[in-house]
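Title: Prediction job returns without error message
Component: structure pipeline
Severity: low
Priority: P3
Assignee: unassigned

Description:
Job completed but the reporter wants confirmation the result is attached to the right record. Sequence as submitted:
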Amino acid sequence: MLASWLRRVPTEVIKKSDMMKNTALVVGVSGITGSNLAQKLLANNWTTYGLARNPVSTLEQLHPIPANLLDEEGLVQALEGVNPTHVFFTTWMRNDTEAENIRVNSALVRNLLNVLSPKKSVQHVALVTGLKHYLGPFDAYVKEGVLPPTPLREEQPRLALDNFYYAQEDEVFAAAERDGFSWSIHRPHTVIGKTVGNLMNMGTTLAVYASICKETGRSFSWPGSAAQWYGISDVTDARILADQLIWAATTPQAHNQAFNITNGDVFRWSWLWPQLAGWFGIDYQGFDGTVRPLEQEMADWGPLWQQLASKYNLKEPDLQRLASPWHTDLDLGRPIEVMTDMANSRRLGFSRYQSSRESFFDLFEQLRQDRIIP
C-alpha cells in the first residue's frame, strides 16, 4: 500500500531530462495538495522549495521556507536567492465572510507574484482552486438559484456571485500579462490524501470518525443528504492532482487553460460507504431520511480522541488538527449529485486514473502505519 502511495509520475507524463533544469516553489507545502506535490517533484529530480507559515516536512531534499504570504516585506527576505521556474499555489485562508475571503486570499497570490516579479525567473504558475468555482462560495454553497448542471465542465461561466476563487484567478491572469509566464488552473473535487492540520480533509475526518465508532461501538452513520447517498459522485486523490499539476506545467499545449481533476471513476456513496465501514470492521447505517451532520456529532469528541491517542500511543491527540467535519458536511450534504467532466485534460494527453476506493484504503493504511489512527 505504502509503495503505491509513493509511486512516481509515469514517465510518459514527465521526462526526467526536463526535470533537471526546473526549480519549483510549492506554496502551501504543509497541506494535502502541497505535501503530495512536493513528494512527486522531488521523486522526479526537481529542485523543490516549500513555502508555508510552518513548513514541517519529512522530505529530506525539500528546501523549507517559513513565510507569511500577507507580509510582503517578509516574503522578500524569505525568498532571497530563490528563483523558481515554476510556482504551484495550493493554499488559502478561511475567513468569516466571502468579502474577507476575497480580500485576504487575493492578497496571498498578489503578494507572492509581486515579490517574484523582479526575479524574472518564473515560467509557469499553477493555481489550485476547486469545485466552489461552479457550486458557489461558502455562504451561498449549492443554494437554490445557483445549482449548476452536472457533470461540471470547465467552459461553464462564472457564477454571478462574489467568489475568492475568481479573485485568485484574476491575480494570476494579471501577473501573467505583466510578467509573461504561462498559467494553469486546477479544480479538484474533494481531495483525498494525508496531512495533519488541514482545513479540508474528508479522508482523515472519516478515518477518525470510523475509529471512534469502532472504539465505542457506535454505528458508522451516513451524515449527509439523500442526493449524495443515492447520486453519482467522484473525488480527487492528492497524488493524481500532483500528477496533473506537473503535467500541465511541463506540457506546452496545456498552458493557459483550466482543468478539472478527479480520479477518473465515479461511484455512489451508497456503494462506497459500506466498504469504508468494512475496512474498519464496523457496522454502518445508510441514509434513513435524516441528515446527521458530523460537526454536531463530533462536537464533544475531543476528550474521547485524547483517550484513544493515549491508549494506542497515537501521534496526534488534538482532534481539531485531524478532522474537519464542517467541510465533510458541506460535501456530503449537497442537495444535488456532483461529478466532473475530465475531457479537457484527456484530449490533451493526461490519461492518469486512480480507483477512488483505493484512494481511501491507501490513506487509511498510511494513517494506521503512521500511528495517526489506531
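Comment from assignee: result matches the submitted record. The CA atoms of residues 109 and 172 lie 7 Å apart.
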